[in-house]
Amino acid sequence: MKQTKTKDILVFLFLLSFVFLLKYDTFNYPFFWDELGVDIPSAIWSYDNHLSPFIGEKAMGHPPVSYIILAIFFKIFGISIFSARLAVLLATAAALFYIFKIGEHIYDTKLGMAAAITSFLIPIFFSQSGLAMSTTFMIPFAFITIYYFLKKNILIYSISATLLIMTRELGVLLVFLLTSLWIFQRKANIKTLAVLSIPLVVFIIWTLLNKYLFGWYIYIPTAVRISSSFLFDFRSRIFDFFSQYRILLLIPFIFIKQFKPEEKTLYYILMSYVLFHSFFTFLPRYFTFLYPLLVIISFGIIYSYSKKIAIPFFLILSILFIFSWNGQRSIPPGWMLETNMEYADIAKTHAHAARFIEQNYPDKRVLTCWPMSSELSDPNMGYVSSAIDIVEMQNMDEGFDIVYFSRQSNCYNLFDNMDATKLEKAATFESNGKSADVYKKI
């Protein structure tokens, strides 16, 4: 037991060092997209309101755990990019550790370590691991919940499942599935059922209190968006979620008859979310935690059949993932580029443009749109040191002096609605196909 604890500590410290080594540059990135739109403002609100779990519309109705975690780090280290990035990198290290523990539990230590390292290198996992968003904080809780389900530790499972659901409501599906498996595959007496019900009961109580405080159980715009996607374009989207790694998905399917019980559990999780995604539309990052499960199963099957090819497979796959970190896409809007590190190019170009405006036109009114409007108006987001006077494009009749445009924004069609001949380009900032332009009126 003592040797196991020592080994686990050493493994965690190694993975923590690995994460910080490869992601240290994220401390220099300003907040991006939903970070500056939802997560960081919600965390600051929680910070200002005694870590309140009832944030309301500011958090788009999402559960509060990730915002409270960030607020705690803000209280310790101050409201800063450093505080948020430190919190998310620690969460990433915890996620990798429990990927390792799941792989070790089902197979062995070598496979667990290989799965953890490879999972971290998956482009979407690697990019999300530097973003302080609720979907990122959901990832470690998902793996902790799965691990203690496999270990049959009902108390820690229940605590982790509660934190998972209260970090992001999408975790309800995972908890419902695992709880159902626990009830039907294992002996479940009244006491067991009571403990298993805690996560869902806590979530229901929280939604009821939302109804009391804000007048809604689930924030209406969010509910409408999810409902409107039901059965929309079912056929074309059924496996879109796994489009980049479809080969990996097929490997476990071929050998499903030979699955261990633990492997079947992981595969049930994967297929449940694939089916769920076939009915509802969600952003790719919402399912980031599923890719490591696919890696564990795939590695395990290859490892079981031939240990000689397992290491070359691990190395080749890791190299392919690394070469997919960056790209030259310039598609709008910007959130579509957070599936790899291309989002960092957007953050860099926007940061350069914001500094240029602050240095050269600090007293001018800037016409722009979101997310640049938040980048310029809130110094906490890391783009400017003082707020800039901005006007949103829908209110351009109010007058402006400067135009700040980026194709990776919500106003990528800005010049369809205004006369560009009356503008003179003052500066352009580019990085790997992404750009930010500053214009002044002639």
Give your account of this protein's structure:
- By secondary structure, the chain is an alpha/beta fold.
- The protein folds into two domains: 2-323, no CATH class; 341-441.
- The chain has 18 helices and five strands.
- The chain has helices spanning 2-23, 34-48, 65-77, 81-106, 109-121, 123-128, 134-150, 154-165, 171-185, 190-214, 220-228, 234-237, 246-254, 261-279, 290-305, 307-323, 342-360, 372-377; strands at 366-368, 390-392, 402-405, 423-431, 434-441.
- It has a five-stranded mixed beta sheet.
- A hairpin with a 2-residue loop joins strand 4 and strand 5 (434-441).
- Helix 3 (65-77) packs across helix 4 (81-106) and helix 4 (81-106) packs antiparallel against helix 5.
- It is globular, with a radius of gyration of 23 Å.
- The termini are far apart.
